[in-house]
Amino acid sequence: MAVAEQKQTVHAQARFVRSSARKARLVTDLIRGRSVPEARTILAFSDRAVARDVERVLHSAVSNAESRPDLLWRGDDLRVETAFADEGPTLKRHRARARGRVGRIMKRTCHITVVLAPAAAFAAPEAGFAQARTAPAGGPAVDTAPAPEAEAEQPGSPEPEANAEPTPEPQAEDPESRED
Fold first, then answer.
1. pLDDT per residue over 53-69, tens digit each?
2. Where are the domains of the chain?
3. What single DSSP character describes residue 7?
């Protein structure tokens, strides 16, 4: 029986936010995977109205992390592990229209959730992946660019002559010096 190691996270959720889940997802996609200070900056300069609600949820999640005595986390050292918006209940309203008909008005709501984790949990896999791509195991980084000597030794290419002088370039005639 294998015991899975649980990653510690903190989360905050805002329920019944008066915005559609589709609009909220556009904003939560911007901050997913970013550090908390970077996410706050993005939300502060976002033009979307739901960005204020997402910012409040982010602030609540950071406060939750800082207030837990067993974690000892600082807000600026955290990353947004996940951020998503689920659909909430839709409020159905009606409006009178022409010829005795009714126009239906759908007032959508959503539930916004932000999950934070320490930034060190994100940095370790990325650094290992970059190192694995650039250097083979136990050796220095490999340069994949072809060497200049290798270009000259290509089979089928003419041999460069060591004592050959460069050919002079043809010079254009000066129209004023021509005698007609």
1. 999 999 999 999 999 98
2. 10-134
3. P
